[in-house]
């Protein structure tokens, strides 16, 4: 039987000049989650967007806002992102020495707490935090830019995380972010991925309804 999975298109590859239209087209196409890549030019060598754009967009759509913070010391901005309308907030384990406290802060703001890990960061860093984590985001490229190639060892990391979650008896979603496309989708899901982020591979091939169908067809080749 096919496993349930969620596609979370990364807006990094959308046309920001017509963001409202993009959000409406995505929602009409049947997309449920949308991935916001927030970059500060310090944690990663690129700058994108902040709470005001998310807050304005919140008034235009009911999509689930999956907010990926690639910023130093995210504890300074959790309240602002939650108030802007983030449904889920991912913070990088590498960006703060106080990860447990940041997760609690997110929970208190009524958003879902998630941990993001750079490709080389070992899973042992988050072992004790799994019970209070809604989702773990595994970066399968180095964060900062869309359109990069999937790092092959990430496949093993997904399997290892899936086993760790089972061992601990925790209930945690696995998100994979970077270099996801129709050619590796089925294998990613088979290995344990629940939420797949796709930027360039999704947005480069409109219309979105047809593209979502193509992703669904690719995912169904899991057997
Ligand atoms: C990279 C971002 C990703 C990226 C994915 O730092 O976190 O979300 O936009 O883009 P693709 O799917 O093009 O690799
Ligand atoms: Zn991302």
Q: How would you describe what is shown here?
A:
The protein is an alpha/beta fold and 223 residues long. Helix content is 33%, strand content 19%. It has 8 helices and 8 strands. Strands 1-8-7-6-5-4-3-2 form an 8-stranded parallel sheet. Strand 2, helix 2 (51-58) and strand 3 (64-70) form a beta-alpha-beta unit. Helix 1 crosses helix 8 and helix 2 (51-58) runs parallel beside helix 3 (78-84). The protein is globular, with a radius of gyration of 16 Å. The termini are close together. The model has no long low-confidence stretch (mean pLDDT 97). The protein binds D-xylitol-5-phosphate and zinc ion. Zinc ion (ZN) binds next to strand 2.
How are the elements arranged and paired?
Layout: E1 6-9, H1 19-29, E2 33-39, H2 51-58, E3 64-70, H3 78-84, E4 88-92, H4 99-108, E5 112-117, E6 135-139, H5 154-168, E7 173-177, H6 185-190, E8 195-198, H7 200-203, H8 208-219
Parallel strand pairs: 1-8, 2-3, 3-4, 4-5, 5-6, 6-7, 7-8
Helix pairs in contact: 1-8, 2-3
Zinc ion binds next to strand 2.
